[in-house]
Amino acid sequence: MISFRQSLAILSGVLSILALFFPLGELNGEAVSLWSDSGLTAFAIVSMLASVAVLLNRLKGLKADLVLVILPHVGAWMLLSRLDVADQHLASGFWCLVVSSWLMAWLLVDQLSAKKTKTPTAKRFYSIVVPVLFGVWLLLLWELVVRGLQIPTVLLPPPSMIGARFMASTDILWADFQQTFLKAVLIGYILGCGSAFIIAILIDRSPFLQRGLLPIGNLVSALPIIGVAPIMVMWFGFDWHSKAAVVIIMTFFPMLVNTVAGLSITSSIEKDMMKTYAASYWQSLIKLRLPSALPFVFNALKINSTLAMIGAIVAEFFGTPIVGMGFRISTEVGRMNVDMVWAEIAVAALAGTAFYGIMVVIERACTFWHPSFRSSR
Amino acid sequence: MLQSTAINTNGNATGVAEGTKQGTTGQAEKMDTNGMSPETGTSSQEQSANSVINIKGLSLTFETNDGPVHALSDIDLTINQGDFVSFIGPSGCGKTTLLRAVADLEQPTGGELWVNGVSAQQARLNRDYGYVFQAPALYPWRTIAGNISLPLEVMGIPKSERQDRIARNMELVNLSGFDKKYPWQLSGGMQQRASIARALSFDPELLLMDEPFGALDEIVRDHLNEQLLRLWDKTDKTVLFVTHSIPEAVFLSSKIVVMSPRPGRIYDVIDCNLPRDRGLDIREAPEFLEIAHRVREGLKEGHSYDD
């Protein structure tokens, strides 16, 4: 029985051998053999040997890490540099090497994520390195495939092109970010989550509101955003106010439902206890029920951090001043500047992830006591 | 019949001659709850200067979908200052319900209930009692010190005094040095001790304990029993203690109330005057065993062992 690691090594080795016999590409109608490229030939042979070593369990520990860190990345760098040769069509040998080095990087990620770490710093190091490696290889393969197969940039630009566009237009991206994120998203998010939180407490106090408001909240959350957004633009104008309104509508209900649910989870013993202290409604709310509702509240805050982003960007499709991430995406698509669209998508992805990440950090600080976060303090 | 003594559950009642070994065991007064008139001899007791809890003809019925459940039926009981009263009986005999009624967590459907001479609700609003629940119910987001501080914060006690009281009560339950720990970092026994410290923190004269050690293993339980006994001896508080365990009840109590189910009622009240400075080894003493035997007999006659 061979392990998953061994099968990765076998596949990688076989592909390196095949690369030696398949053509690297085609130049002016003539096939180019891999042997004419001494760098890639050396890479193919070394990676074949490395695969055999992994397969026979000769390559272990730090040595294995070192080989697997260096080899696939040197290979990827060489393969990237071969993309630029003019008039060359890349062929099967090239793709064999791409897949082979990708498999080796996979082996590395597999090896690193299986590491048993002792110190917390080492643990943190690996928890960062593994996803970074994963992301880097995603970008590498994207770049190699898009440029190697000469896919039209309108369909999918390579990451290098998106990166170059990103660096060249940081001023526009920053203006869009300010307009969409710092104004519409943040203000809408704070108002939406804040008002939902307050109304959840009102609902908790009065059964009348519970019967009346919860169904209406449910109804509002079911409204299609592309129906609501143009109406909000008519009501609140082209600027960020209308987008903030859409964000409020989107974030309100998840926050409301979660807070109401969170406020109702305190056990009867805990409530009885507050009663034996003759605690007032507000005392038991602040000292007992709100803290125990926090895990629910943070769930809503996390869900809403991404919902708010989507809401604001989509709302900008229905009329904006000439700035904003949604505006930029819709106009640049029309002008076939797909790289700019992707740059905006990258900004949105980064901002959304950072927003979510900040919420997670705050959550950990506030609900460290919850069973899902408890550590041996 | 023994009606005149039957209603008199004060410890000072001398009544039945049967089975009293002078100085070793207490007296048992049989309660005949069926044919008894609650008025008998009550008015004099109500005035009893040192009585903390007066219960007369108390009944409590829960309305459920399957019809009414008589959790408590015609309960008469007087508890004096400094008594340690255990309530023992099988599940469903209403002992916890009785304790909760005293704490104003359940509303009786009939009869009278006075705590410190006022209604149960007024006593609760006066913060006359500390209640220890079956589970520690410590808030996981508060440290042990923070949990003990909780009732003090609710009651508006200034910070400097809070710290004083926290330290004092943590020492009382042998938890000094654990103030910065969180409840989930402590063992079950330590958590329950913290919850006792929390109930004691605002220094109530009356302590209501609902099977506080029920979820603990026997070794920890023995240890906590001894500590609780010391505490009671030191502070002279009145304790109402619900339990399932006969040895625990006999070991701790100055008075044992045997209850029987369907409907929940008091079957017997046994005085239990073991020396105050008793240790765990008293459980092998003949007087201890005799009281335990009487409790068991009471439970048997009250149909507690029936299916």
What is this structure, in a nutshell?
By secondary structure, chain A is mostly helical. Helix content of chain A is 77%, strand content 3%. Chain A contains 14 helices and three strands.
User: What amount of the residues of chain B lies in strands?
Assistant: 15-25%
What is the CATH fold-level name of chain B? Rossmann fold
Overall residue-averaged pLDDT value of chain B: 75
Order of helices and strands of chain A: HEEHHEHHHHHHHHHHH
Would you identify the regions of chain A where 5 or more consecutive residues have pLDDT less than 50?
none
Total individual domains of chain A? 2
What summary fits the major beta sheet of chain A? 3 strands, antiparallel
Number of domains of chain B: 1
Which range best describes the helical content of chain A: under 10%, 10-25%, 25-40%, 40-55%, 55-70% or over 70%? over 70%
Proportion of residues in helical segments of chain B: 25-40%
The radius of gyration computed from the alpha-carbon positions of chain A, rounded to a whole number of angstroms, is 28 Å
CATH class of chain B: Alpha Beta
What is the general shape of chain B? Answer: globular
Please state the CA-atom Rg of chain B, rounded to the nearest Å: 19 Å
- Based on the coordinates given, report the CATH architecture of the largest domain in chain A: Orthogonal Bundle
What average pLDDT do the residues of chain A reach? 86
Strand order of the largest sheet of chain B: 1-11-10-4-9-8-7
Looking at CATH, the homologous superfamily of chain B is: P-loop containing nucleotide triphosphate hydrolases
- Greatest interface: A-B, 24 and 25 residues
